[in-house]
Specification:
Blueprint lengths: L1 H25 L6 E12 L5 E5 L9 E5 L1 H6 L5 E7 L7 E8 L8
Antiparallel strand pairs: 1-2, 1-4, 2-3, 4-5
Length: about 110
Amino acid sequence: RRVISWLILPVNLIYAFSTLTLANGAYETAPPQPFETEVLSKTSGRYGAKFVRVEPWGPVTQVRKLPIGTQTYRKTEPGDTLCLTLYTGALGWRYYDWEWCGPKAPPAAP
């Protein structure tokens, strides 16, 4: 009986955190903030995970490593642009989403 009590606690904590996270996104009223950042490099991690390192953007002041999907990874090259959208969240828990904006723009003709 004591073991069952200890198993229920982690399940309840996960449920509570998940509920708060969903509420943070579902009841947000602040407008999203768009940003663009440059891809510095791309790497593959263990078990097929794909990542890109990007320049600082918006409130982020350091280079970040972001996980991306395989299709986006294949078409993204260093120098390309990622479009990021920052959300404030109803509970103040910031989160963001990103998508590939396209290849690096060619230099302007003189």
